[in-house]
Specification:
The protein is α+β, with helices and mostly antiparallel strands. About 15% of the residues lie in helices and about 30% in strands. A hairpin with a 5-residue loop joins strand 5 and strand 6.
Length: about 250
């Protein structure tokens, strides 16, 4: 796939954010700068998986294989609806299954299932065909886009979103906190009993920072981030669930 663009400091966005008034940051904004560069129009790959799912290990491996590609934001959400089989997923939270269910209608699927990979909020991948994931990423990478810019303040406590075309029904800015890299869990019950399962970029929390209607806004980032956590900021359409833009603030 071709390399995606990377955000560079944009004076126009900084000045617009200084002038913008919003409930997220009403006063006192003087300057917005980057702490680290991030993709301006990345391909966001979201995997919904479970440690109790016997066929999910292969999907975990495929996500790990593309996680380090330039311009890819890879995220693993562990869902809890497999826990009834006897193993309580160590990473699962109910809100992750809720996020997966929000894709059901836009993707025109009858119900949620695992494993499921959703790309840019607009399409899912048939994992039965090994090249399907890479082909879908490559296709999304060449899709014309003019996303709003995203900048992290140098203090790392706020993120600015620039102006752009707002989708029908508006959009929201979502902060996805995750633990970068791979983690291994030994499963001692259920369908994967005795197996060591690897997970990549495990999500630990999802928070909506506020609405975005096309005008520049500065949002406070989550203040409860633990040491070593990264945060992916996604601008996502409320109706279609299409992801318009994203960027990552790496751990300090």
């Amino acid at each position: 796939m071709r390399n995606r663009g990377w955000i560079t400091p944009a004076a126009a966005l900084g000045l617009a954010l200084v002038a913008a008034t919003s409930t997220a940051q009403p006063t006192g904004v003087r300057e917005v700068r980057h702490q680290v560069p991030g993709p301006s129009d990345p391909v966001v790959v979201e995997l919904f998986t479970a440690q109790g799912c016997g066929v999910c290990a292969e999907a975990n491996s495929r996500l790990e294989a593309v996680a380090d590609e330039p311009g890819v934001i890879a995220l693993t959400y562990a869902v809890d609806y497999w826990d009834y089989l006897g193993w309580r997923d160590t990473f699962a939270r109910p809100e992750f299954a809720q996020r997966q269910r929000a894709y059901r209608r836009p993707l025109r699927v009858r119900d949620v299932s695992t494993p499921q990979i959703v790309i840019n909020g607009r399409r899912q991948v048939a994992l039965a065909q090994p090249p399907a994931l890479q082909a879908a990423i490559d296709d999304e990478a060449t899709r014309p886009a003019n996303p709003p810019e995203i900048e992290f303040r140098e203090t790392g406590d706020r993120v600015g979103v620039g102006s752009g075309a707002s989708p029908e029904g508006g959009a929201e800015v979502v902060a996805v906190r995750y633990k970068p890299g791979a983690q291994t869990v030994v499963v001692s019950a259920g369908e994967n009993r005795g197996r060591r399962l690897r997970h990549t970029n495990v999500v630990v929390g999802v928070e909506t920072l506020g609405d975005w209607s096309g005008r520049p806004v500065l949002y406070p980032l989550p203040d409860d981030m633990a040491q070593g956590e990264a945060v992916a900021v996604l601008i996502q359409a409320k109706g279609s669930r299409r992801i318009l833009a994203g960027a990552v603030l790496a751990p300090r």
